[in-house]
Amino acid sequence: MTTWLNMSLQDGASPIMEQLIFFHDHTLMIMLMIITTVMYMMTTLIWNKHTSRFMLEGQLIETTWTIAPAIILVFIAMPSLRLLYLMDEIHNPAMTLKAVGHQWYWSYEYSDFTKLEFDSYMIPQDENQASTFRLLDTDNRIVLPMNSPIRLVVTAADVLHSWTIPSLGVKTDATPGRLNQTSFSINHPGILYGQCSEICGANHSFMPITIESVSANHFINWVSSLSE
Where do the Cytochrome oxidase subunit II transmembrane region profile domain residues begin and end (predicted)? Predict the structure, then answer.
């Protein structure tokens, strides 16, 4: 999670999110160079009292400021398209998780296991402990193995929802009567937080998402304990 006074994005917990952060910084550097050049030219024109007939018209400068933006857009578009294709790619998943949005909680089903499903509600404020985050922790966390490709299938039972984990770079709309899918891989253990990012009603901000990333052995033991 981000903390107070942090100005950047959350630390990436998946390879895709790390690539998104790199692309964000790459684009900001291009914008910084453009802003610096424009500010320099504006300042020069304001403070320089000399005039020249070449400043009124010139084929070279007109050609330059037509071609240069096109080249800059190519440097932005190519990594952007690459990321779009990577985010849409569904690799061979190690397991499948199904998330169903309700007003106002999430239901989860582990499709690869028999009768492994539960509802996930936000912990009420009067039950919060010192180790829990207000409005972000849930009574039942999603437990997933790290370093494993996960396929997420998302739908909704009533209205539009959006299953979002910022540190994973995942944001998938949950639409009634439709299945949307995405994939991700968590590259380190820990607890990841997210929230419904769709205005789905009065309590849409009170249906958080909590993922607990664990090792494969710990995940197998967790599944075994629920199956007993």
Answer: 1-91
Ranges of CATH 2.60.40.420 domains, the chain: 95-227
For residues 212 and 74, give the distance between their C-alpha atoms in angstroms, rounded to a whole number. 39
The pair phi, psi for residue 132, each rounded to 5°, is -105, 155
CA distance linking residue 103 with residue 125, whole number of Å: 19
What are the structure tokens assigned to 153, written together? Answer: 């299938």
CA end-to-end distance (rounded Å), the chain: 34
CB 196 within 8 A of CB 160: no
According to DSSP, the residues that pair with 105 across neighbouring strands are 102
The pLDDT confidence band at residue 91, using thresholds 50, 70 and 90, is confident
Q: What whole-number percentage of the chain has pLDDT above 70?
A: 95
Please tell me the distance from the alpha carbon of residue 108 to that of residue 115, in angstroms, as a whole number.
11
Confidence of residue 205 (pLDDT cuts 50, 70, 90): confident
For residue 171, count CB atoms less than 10 angstroms from its CB and return exposed for 0-12, middle for 13-18, buried for 19 or more.
middle
What would be the CATH architecture of the domain defined by 95-227?
Sandwich (2.60)
Which of 138, 143, 107, 109 is closest to 122 using CA atoms? 138
